[in-house]
Amino acid sequence: MSQDELQKFISLISRLPSIGQRSAQRIALYLLKNKQELMLPLAESINETAHVVKKCQNCGILDTISPCKICSSDTRSQTTICIVEDMADVWAFERSGYHNGLYHVIGGLLSASKNFTEQDLKLNHLKQRIEKNNIQEIILALSATIEGQTTALVIKDSLDELKIKLAKLKKDPESTEKEILATENEITYLESIHENFYIGMNVFRT
Hints:
Strand order of the largest sheet: 4-3-5-6-7
Mean pLDDT: 84
Distance between the termini: 56 Å
Order of helices and strands: HHHEEHEHEHEHEHHE
Number of helices: 9
Low-confidence stretches: 171-206
Radius of gyration: 20 Å
Strand content: 5-15%
């Protein structure tokens, strides 16, 4: 491996979330020192994952098949959809074992700085899915940040005409961003979704 290739390797690692240049150098050196045990198996796994993992055509979950295993399951409720930002939220719900319905992964929150707009939410697809599958309840499980609550309001407004039940997780002022779904308090928060209301009401309760 030439110096140019090594620097490219380090540069790519540094593009991972929360990884700076010095951390990337340490990771690169560790991998190079453990080629057979870690580096080569990791490279093989990355290549295989890149080729076989895809987004579910229905809900956006990452899986090796589409529709995904959750959408195709006969044991899950087919009348409830939980709207989440990304796969990390899906994993948190699945760890808790509380939610037994379907999911809808929107892929981000409305943000001008991140260039994530209302069009990126693909709300028409969500509405078509609700109508086609006779969905009875929507759970908004978005973060308690300004971006998360703004996104929740936009989704609520877009679904007004459907007149279906909508629930949202209660905001905990002690929690930051995704701690609602990432700590031992998961069950407590999931149980709080039954602060239910119906789309079409003037008040969006928290």
